[in-house]
Amino acid sequence: MKEIIVDILTYIKTNLSDELTIEEVAGHFGYSKYHFSREFKRLTGFSAADYLSSIKIERAKQELLKQNFSVTDSSFDAGFSSLGTFSTTFAKKTGLSPREYKKQVESLYGITKEYERKSPCTLHYYSEEKNTEKNNQLSLTIHYPENYESSITFAGLFRSPIPNHKPIVGTALAQTNRHTFTHIPDGDYYLLVCSIEKTMNPLRYFVLNECLRGKVEEVLHFPSSEHSHVEVHLRPPLPEDPPILINLPKLLADSFPFRNL
Predict the structure, then answer these.
(1) Residue 190: its pLDDT value, please?
(2) Name one GO molecular function term (predicted).
(3) How distant is the alpha carbon of residue 42 from its chain centre?
């Protein structure tokens, strides 16, 4: 299955409107659902069900931002047969209901551009109250392709290799490529980074399928003496990359101390 994993991921992405199921994908490639699901997670690091659900939400985000697309249109186009299931899943993975998401795009874009104008900036985020008793730290250096101009770069430590939830510890960087995460809770994490290029197109801040990204390949364990500094080289997205579902402008507006800028 390893040699066709990219074909499998591409097939899932291109067949969402057919109310695709994992069992149907497995059958299409000649596998039982159980064997397919087990090998899929072994090869990618995330479950087939989570990947399929995340890809559907990514598609729905794209459709929602079209002026003539309603929430109902977006849900069915993304392969959801139930509007209720769509709304629940969307809110879980993005932090907003579909209607709220569509309504807040303009204001969140304005906040993001204001943050960019305040640069150079580095903001810190903790999903829970910062535990000052934990002294786990990790220094990060980000490398950009030549001639690339970044607007905002987000980096975070996640529980899952799919960034479809808020990071446990995170940062937003403008005009700087270095950061040190401090007071990291004990645990195992995936370090994921994505960068939004400077643009006047607001949609590029919400639909992140084309943004540069990078990661640390191995799982990072804390506490640990193995990793004190990591370097991440950003590159364009690959077909096998999972979607980035976080509503980054909302994370910037609500979770970071934006009012203190």
Answers:
(1) 94
(2) DNA-binding transcription factor activity
(3) 20
Task: Taking the CA atoms of 127, 83, 44 and 65 in sequence, report the sign of the dihedral they define.
Answer: negative
Helix (H) or strand (E) holding 39: helix 33-44
Residues in contact with 107: Cβ distance below 8 Å, sequence separation at least 6, in sequence order = none
pLDDT band at 68 (very low <50, low <70, confident <90, very high): low
Q: CA-CA-CA-CA torsion for 105, 111, 117, 118, nearest 10 degrees? A: -150
Q: Are 156 and 192 in contact (CB under 8 A)?
A: yes
**Which of the 8 DSSP states describes residue 256?**
S
Domain boundaries, the chain: 2-94, 120-260
Q: Which CATH superfamily is domain 120-260 in?
A: Carboxypeptidase-like, regulatory domain (2.60.40.1120)
The better pLDDT of the pair 57, 189 is held by 189
Report the CATH architecture of 2-94: Orthogonal Bundle (1.10)
171, 124 contact by CB (below 8 A): yes
